[in-house]
Amino acid sequence: MRRFLLTATILMALAATPWALAQEQPALERILVPVLYPPTAGAFDSLWTTELAIRNNGNEIAFFTPIFCGGVCGGVTTLDPGASGFIKPLLSADGFRGGAFLYVDRKHASDISLALRAQDLSRQAETWGTEIPLVRESELRSGTTVLLNVPLDTRFRQTLRLYHGEATAVPMRVRLLSASNEVIAETIVNVPAATGQFIPGYAEIGAFRSAFPTVGNDAAIHVEVRPLIDVRYWAFITITNNATQHVTTVTPQ
Question: Does the structure show a pLDDT above 90 at 231?
Fold first, then answer.
């Protein structure tokens, strides 16, 4: 199986092109990779890691920017037709807890397949992990998002994850709704500004019963997210079983 290669020749050839300036190049498509980190200790002796696979299904060479950060962000590489491999980020000290942006050549964006998998390595014999959605530009949200049927059972832990690509902080209103659409809790989350081109603005809310003491005895709720300014954004929830560490994702549909 052919793997992608990053060469000095490619970098030198592209350094003088608009590819080196992603903000000025309309031929790039930005893709949100929501979580990306090396083996990291979690609750209940879990050990989490993510793996990002990529493949070029087209008949031409496809260009993309690998996710590099830790003093230097950037770089351009290529993927030959039919080639596949894994994107291994150069991580900062605390990893990409809030994800990262990957840029692909818009001309070949539809030819690129990506798969992001999160797995608890301490229990890897029990499950292959959970696929985490990667978010292309067309899938970003505006206005109100409602994430449905989120359990509040204490056997599970919930994390609401919020993302945007703006250069300024974005306030987002989060409401918990009962099955009958009654507002049972509400808060404002100030999601920090994105850092450069590669690190999105990110915030999270975990442990809903602790974060929202007024939630009551509801077995399951809906979560409503709305930015208080006009931006494109993404929100989803991970639900993790405390015993098995199996993860369920709740995404906008």
Answer: yes
